[in-house]
Structures are given as structure tokens and as C-alpha cells.
Design a protein that fits this description.
The protein has 2 domains: about 5-225 and about 305-370, Rossmann fold, CATH 3.40.50; about 260-300, no CATH class. The longest helix has 17 residues, at about 345-360. It contains 7 helices and 20 strands. The protein is an alpha+beta fold and about 375 residues long. Strands 1, 2, 3, 6, 9, 10, 11, 12, 19 and 20 form a 10-stranded mixed β-sheet that branches. A 4-stranded antiparallel β-sheet has the order 15-18-17-16. Strands 4-5 form a two-stranded antiparallel ribbon.
């Protein structure tokens, strides 16, 4: 039986998940065997789980979609951010003192823990250590890319997301605000599962330490989209490690290359060589098969038109021995939160579907004791 936690803390910031919606989700999960924990309680539970080598026995659902600084302890808490200007706008970049993967939360996942995330893009924001209701721009530190190896796509034209598997917890289409593209879009990075024996599959994945595999659960056909943010902000360091500035690199140069093969007649001797093509931003290689052979020129060039045939709005990411489950990437707000996007019954349905999905993965949460207490009438 797993230790099932749901993080909900009114003293910490949230983003797309409204206060009222998050509270109902947390209470609904509590009735299904989850313990509601604050940010400080979450930190202690994760710390104990890692220390006692029991992270694999825990699952945490985040009912607030900003990472609490309490479990993201890799920044300078006394001087948590530096203001930077981008396109005449001021943002707050985190002052990181340890690797992003060294936080308490990531240690928990790498050691076998399971995290369920819904709402805004994971690792887009983190709460301010000096004001828990304030959120800092973790995306400026390339949080989603560095931690999860994903690139959020802001769709210009796309179809609604649909489930990949017929026996998955959700078979109907639902909106998607920012589906993601695995970095470099390598096929060996995305793992499709044909069979439906979920608990067996994921037990094997966790035991085998499945690395950075991403298993899509719902996909969105993005006709045209742009990576978000468009640029990566990378630090410029001296030899002693001191940061002296930042360099902006277009993310399209990283995730959207394409290859072009050209074959031409040749009258040259047998051999092989390669050269750079600075104007095209890539390289070309020539293989020569003989005096009257063919030249096969392969160019890697940048695709100037960012077209993504498929992106994923719901997925499971293998991370070390653990799993990161991403669901419902849209705003989850009730009337009390303003600008309602869902109903109370839909939020309660999310709790049921989360528990159902975890059960498919072989993760069983304890039934709440209230479900088994007999009704006693006073005389």
C-alpha cells in the first residue's frame, strides 16, 4: 500500500489551479485515502522518504501548480533572484547555488517517488523563499528543459488533445494550452506502449531505471506552433565559474533541425570528407564511391518554419527510478476563483481519474477509514 499525499497550502502561490478548485481536489483526494500536506510537511515527508530509502512507496499529487521553494532547495534563500531585462520587460531569474536536479523534490523522484502534476507547465515557477505567495520565474533558468527535457509549445494552430490509449483514464478530447515537445524530438526518447497491462509495464520500467523515456498519454496535432519561451537564457562564465552575463540562444536552433540529402554525379577519386556550412547553420558530408561515382551530400540545416506534427499534452516521464505524471494542461478554476473553466463536479472527477490511473500503474492508496466505520445511532 502506497503513502499517498496531496500538496495543498494556502500559504504558497499557485498559477492555473485556483484556490477553490485546488481545495476541492485536495479534499476529494483526502476522502480517497490521501493525506493533505503543507509545503513544510511535504519537505519533511520527502526528506524522510529519501533518507529511509522508501521514496518508491510514495506518490504526491500537486493541487497547487507552483513548485514550493521548501522542496526546491537549490537557490540562495537569502538572495533568491536577480532582475534581468528581456525585450524591455523585467523578469526575476533565480540565483541557483546547486544543480537543478539536486533539489529535495528531484531526489525524491530519482529515488523512486511518483509525482502527479496538473495545471500550469511543470517547473515554470517556484515560490519566493522570502514570500511564499510570490512566484519567481524558474523558466528563465530553463527549468522545464533542464529538469524534464521538454520544450513547451505555444500552439498557433492545433487540434484538441486526444487520448493515445483506449483503456486510458480519459478517452474524450480536452483543451490543451501548451503541449510539450520532447527535446530534439528523438524517436528513441518517446516510448509508445501497445499493451494494456499497465501495472506490469510500469513496474518493469521503474525496476529497470528507464532513464528519460517519455510515454505520451494524450497527443495534440500542432499544425504550427512556437516554442515557449523562444530563447534560452544561458549564463556566460569565466574560468573560475563566475557569471559575467547571459547569452540568449534561439531554442529553434536546438529542437527543430531537419536533414536534406542531395545526390549528384562526380568524377573524383575515392575518399570521404566533411565540411561546415556556416551560412546554413549545419554541416555537410560527402561519401565518394569511385571515379565516376556519386556524391551523397547530407546537410543538417535549421527549419525556419516551426512546424510540429505532434506534441503531447499529457504524459508520463521516467526519471531515474521514479515517475513524473503530467495531466490536464489548462486552467482549472471555479466560479469562486473567477473566470471559471471547470465545474465542481469536473474537479471531483479529476480526483477519481487520478486514483484510477494510479491503480492502473499498480499504486494503491489506502481507503479512508471513514468508509468503513459503521453508523452508530445514539439511543
Amino acid at each position: 500500500m502506497a503513502n499517498c499525499l496531496v500538496y495543498y497550502d494556502k500559504g504558497r502561490a499557485t498559477s492555473w489551479v485556483g484556490d477553490a478548485a485546488g481545495e476541492i481536489l485536495a479534499n476529494e483526494l483526502k476522502g480517497k485515502g490521501f493525506d493533505i500536506v503543507s509545503a513544510e510537511e511535504l519537505r519533511q515527508r520527502l526528506k524522510n522518504a529519501v533518507r529511509n530509502n522508501e521514496a518508491g512507496k510514495y506518490v504526491v499529487v500537486f493541487a497547487r501548480d507552483v513548485v514550493p521553494h521548501d522542496v526546491f532547495d537549490v537557490m540562495d534563500e537569502n538572495n533568491p533572484f536577480t532582475e534581468v531585462m528581456i525585450n524591455n520587460m523585467t523578469f526575476r531569474r533565480l540565483n541557483i547555488v546547486k544543480p537543478l536536479g539536486g533539489s529535495q523534490l528531484m531526489k525524491f523522484i530519482y529515488n523512486g517517488g511518483v509525482v502527479v502534476w496538473l495545471g500550469d507547465i511543470p517547473f515554470w515557477y517556484v515560490t519566493n523563499p522570502k514570500d511564499g505567495m510570490d512566484k519567481l520565474d524558474l523558466w528563465l533558468n530553463n527549468g522545464p528543459l533542464t529538469i524534464l527535457k521538454i520544450v513547451p509549445i505555444s500552439p498557433i494552430s492545433m487540434q484538441p488533445a486526444i487520448s493515445v490509449y483506449k483503456d486510458f483514464y480519459e478517452v474524450h478530447a480536452y483543451p490543451s494550452q501548451k503541449p510539450v515537445l520532447p527535446v530534439l524530438y528523438l524517436q528513441n526518447y518517446v516510448q509508445n506502449i501497445e499493451r494494456s497491462i499497465w501495472s506490469v509495464i510500469f513496474k518493469k520500467l521503474k525496476i529497470s531505471n528507464c532513464g528519460n523515456k517519455l510515454i505520451p498519454l494524450a497527443k495534440a496535432d500542432v499544425t504550427i506552433g512556437m516554442p515557449y519561451p523562444l530563447n534560452l537564457l544561458l549564463p556566460i562564465k569565466r574560468h573560475n565559474g563566475q557569471v559575467v552575463g547571459y547569452q540568449s540562444i534561439k531554442i529553434l536552433n536546438v529542437i527543430n533541425p531537419r536533414r536534406r540529402i542531395i545526390t549528384v554525379d562526380s568524377k573524383v577519386r575515392r575518399g570521404k570528407f566533411e565540411w561546415k556550412i556556416p551560412a546554413l547553420g549545419g554541416t555537410a558530408g560527402v561519401s565518394i564511391g569511385g571515379e565516376n561515382g556519386k556524391q551523397v551530400i547530407t546537410e543538417t540545416v535549421l527549419n525556419k518554419l516551426p512546424i510540429y506534427p505532434e506534441a503531447y499534452s499529457s504524459w508520463i516521464k521516467c526519471m531515474g527510478k521514479g515517475l513524473f505524471i503530467r495531466l490536464w494542461d489548462y486552467e482549472i478554476r471555479l466560479d469562486k476563483d473567477g473566470n471559471a473553466t471547470v465545474t465542481e463536479e469536473e474537479v471531483r472527477g479529476m480526483a477519481r481519474k487520478i486514483r484510477s490511473l494510479l491503480k492502473k500503474l499498480g499504486i494503491k492508496c489506502p481507503q479512508h477509514l471513514l468508509h468503513f466505520w459503521p453508523i452508530i445511532y445514539a439511543p
